[in-house]
Amino acid sequence: MLRRTAPRVCCLWILLSSVLIWRVQCASAQSCHEVKTAFQLRQVGSLRWVPETATTDVDLLICKHQGPTCCTRKMEESYYAAAQRDTLQNILSYSFELKYLILGHASSFQDTFHSLLSFTLNHTYSLFDSTYGTISQDAKPLVSTLFSDLDLYLRGDANISVEHSVHSFYDKLFPLVYQHLVNPGLGSNVSTWSSEGSECLRATRHDINPFGPHPQELAQGLSRALVAGRALSRALAVGSEVLNATESVGMARQCGRALVRMLFCPHCRGLTLIRPCGGLCLNVMRGCLAGLAELDGPWRSYVALLEGLSRALSGGYEVELALLRIRERINDAILTAQLNGPHLSAVVGKVCGSLTELVSSTQVSPTSRSLTPSVNPTIELLTSVSSSSPTALPNKLKSLPIRCFRLYIVTSLSLPLKPSKNDKPRSLKKISKEFMGYIQRYKSFFSTLPEMLCEGEVVMDENTCWSGEDVVESYTGHVVGNGLKAQKHNPEIKIRSVDPILVNVKEKLEHFNQEMWGELGLGTDGREDVETSSGDAAEGSGECDDEDGCQGSGRSEGETGEFVRPLHHGSKTTVSLR
């Protein structure tokens, strides 16, 4: 009996042992389920490339190590593309904030400039409609051309000169003023004046100088007031171009491999939750972004330029006042020509000859003669009053009828510069101060970008991290600095050159900085800090100003923002943008 059952028992034990050994072998095989889950969540690639269990006979190029792995060559290729994609997206997310800041404020500045120009254009139109109706229709196109040039100038058009545009306006205005206001009886009909005569008046306006000092004063005043706005528009456009160029730069092959080792090689061992060490991340990111870090110096100078220009625009209302004075300057110029009418006619007769030969009494109808305005003695007296010094006004005003006195007061008052407290749109001063506060945060953008990227990849409170080769308690490699030269000692990545696109961007930004600092009369490349002058100017730039409802801003009328450049011996030189 025992002999019969013994073979059966032996067979049963053999079968049970085989099953047990098979289960132990299956349990010992490493599952790649977590790796597949992470592969899917991070949208790395197709799940068919991920094996179910770890294998050892895989020929990997990046994530090489002894032992079983959950990675394949196809997975490495997918990891390579995903690492570059995710890193570039993170870089774009940070640069987008800066780009949005620049483009948004560039649009705000242009909208404000356009509003100011539109208001002062209509303000100047009203001068001709109300005071010089006989030349209003012909003068308005000239005024429109002047303001169009100013708009283009503020947008940074290199072909526009404020002084040339102003003098061109007065050149074309002179024939109208001479024919209709200085000699209205002779120029009652424009067709009676020869084109040669009008061209002579235009060509000789500068030499004859019928408008006195007012054209030159207007040209110089506008040039001083608008230079900061024009420079800021140009600078914001260049900043946008720089960011667009940096966004188009790809990553070097060495960078992609280093990113895979840092971000995905732990997955090959099933370590999907381990984070890279801080030192490893800094070395990899500083190596990958070595070309961008080369922009740090020119970018700091560029931001200092933006700060200075914003400070100049936020220091007062010089732009608004200069534009509002256009109407006043034009009116003063026309009045000067009228006051000097006899002398002016004599000079024109000598220079251009007799312009009245073509005019005959039969060519001018009685109706047109009746429409010709005559020079009113009261207007002449008002003209002399308006051109006199303030101390001389009371005596001359005493001789005026009360209705003329009221007319003088109404026409002499300027329109209100600022709206009421109940209606406060964003002024140029407000936008400038806001932009200056924001842009300061991005002065070190290109040098701190690696740290910003690593903040999202590294967990600082964990006891262990990924060193690029294994799980360690701390990273023992040498952590390099920013820039191309520092990468010679980078243990994680070897970068020997910078993308040609970034080289071109750096040169362009350096050239622009030198050009702008030179145009503004600072004579520096911007490496020295730009700061506000102390004393009253600093008080005027505080948080509380007139627009916030304060009674005073600590800044006198006509005072402007200024650049202050410290000298080596400790003193300061102030360069005004006026």
Automatic annotation (TrEMBL):
Key word Signal present: yes
Stored InterPro entries: Glypican
Leader sequence residues: 1-29
Membrane topology, record value: Lipid-anchor; GPI-anchor
Keyword Nucleotide-binding belongs to the record: no
Stretch list, region Disordered: 520-578
A GO cellular component entry from the record: side of membrane
Stated role: Cell surface proteoglycan.
Assigned protein family: Belongs to the glypican family.
This protein's name: Glypican 5b
Gene source species: Cyprinus carpio carpio
